[in-house]
Structures are given as C-alpha cells and as structure tokens.
Amino acid sequence: MAGVPAPTERSPSELLPPVRVVVLVEGESDRVAVETLAQRRGRDLTAERVQVLAMGGITQLPKRVAEVTARGVAVVGLYDAAEERWVRRALAVPGHRPGPEPAELAARGFHGCRDDLEDELIRALGVTVCVSLVETAGDLRALRHLAGMPAHRGRPAEAVLHRFLGAGSGRKIRYARLLTAALDLEHVPAPLDAVLAATC
C-alpha cells in the first residue's frame, strides 16, 4: 500500500544495542508484518528501542530467549499454535518445568496464531480483498494457475490463497507487507496486534 515504507532489512541474528524489548518471530515474513503494523500505527520501533528478530525456525526459540534475557532485555513473541510446546519450553524456569500453562503465555507476551500469521491475515481481510491485492500486485494469473491444478481443485479459496502465499521466491515476505498494509486497523488479527502492544 502506498505510503507504508518497507521495513528495514536486518540479519536474523543481529541484536542492535541498545535494545529494550525484543520480539521473537519465526520467519522474515512475520518480522515484516510486525514492523509494517508498527509503522501503520505511527510507531518508530528503533526510537522505542524495540527490535523484531526472525529466528529462522521455532526450534531456535529456547536459545534466543536465553540469549536475550541474559542481556537483561525483555522478550515477547509470536508463534503458531501448533508450536506451543517450544514456547513453553523456552519460558520454563530451570528446575521448574514445565513452562507456563497455555493461558499464561499471553501474559508473558507470547501470542499464538491459530494456524500461522498468513492464515490470520487472510481471515482478517477476507478472500475478496486478498484476491484484489494479488491482482494489483500482478500475480493473479499465478494464483489462478495454482487454483486450477488438480491438487487444489475444490479446495476452499482460503486454503488456495494460503498455499499461494507460501510458494515462490520472496512471495511470503512481499505479501506479509501488502496484506498487513491493507488491514483495517480496527480489525487487526488479535495475535499480531497483541504482540505489538506487548512492546509498549
């Protein structure tokens, strides 16, 4: 969307000093979505000393939480519901396992997406808006080609869109920005909104 600058590219392993809060997310598309929403809400995360770090996989979470908290920095995060066990493991106090109960994770600043963030964005925007964004981006032909493949015929439009966003080099990251930029700010997916709010 015009007027929303692209989030700054950073190395997933780079922790920029001085940092007050680190937001841990699984991948680069999640990072872009969080930073894009922050920009739309008029926030300057760099000035606020908030950094969003893409870990390159949920299995990195325990290590990253340990690294960040060892520096005395607060940590929050966004995760897929199916990966909750990794969050509980990361937040467990040594000698007092298991980690926080599921209901306590949000209180600790970790917010789960029902499936994943792409699914949350598709449901928030609706199929019609998502397809319009794909058309504006010049990718409608590719989406129709995917939808016409035998493996996807008869599948729900949401499922086809989800598969489309995850296919193709760089597509997931590009559409994370486009979809987040198109959100009605009164109807932002709850996990995305909550993890940004947890950095205040």
Structural class: alpha/beta
> Can you tell me the overall shape?
globular
Radius of gyration: 17 Å
* Strand content range: 5-15%
Mean pLDDT: 90
Flag low-confidence runs: none
Order of helices and strands: EHEHEHHEHHHHHH
Helix tally? Answer: 10
The count of strands amounts to 4
Helix content: 40-55%
For the sheet with most strands, the description reads: 4 strands, parallel
Task: Give the terminus-to-terminus CA distance.
Answer: 25 Å
Task: Give the strand order, joined by hyphens, for the main sheet.
Answer: 2-1-3-4
Keywords:
single chain; about 200 residues; alpha/beta; four-stranded parallel beta sheet; 4 strands; about 10% strand; globular
Structure write-up:
With 200 residues, the protein is an alpha/beta fold. Helix content is 46%, strand content 10%. It is built from ten helices and four strands; from the N terminus they run βαβαβααβαααααα. It has helices spanning 28-40, 61-70, 84-91, 102-105, 117-125, 127-136, 140-147, 157-166, 171-182, 190-197, and strands at 21-25, 50-54, 74-80, 110-113. It has a four-stranded parallel β-sheet, sandwiched between helices. Strand 1 (21-25), helix 1 and strand 2 (50-54) form a beta-alpha-beta unit. Helix 1 (28-40) crosses helix 10 and helix 7 (140-147) packs across helix 8. The model has no long low-confidence stretch (mean pLDDT 90).
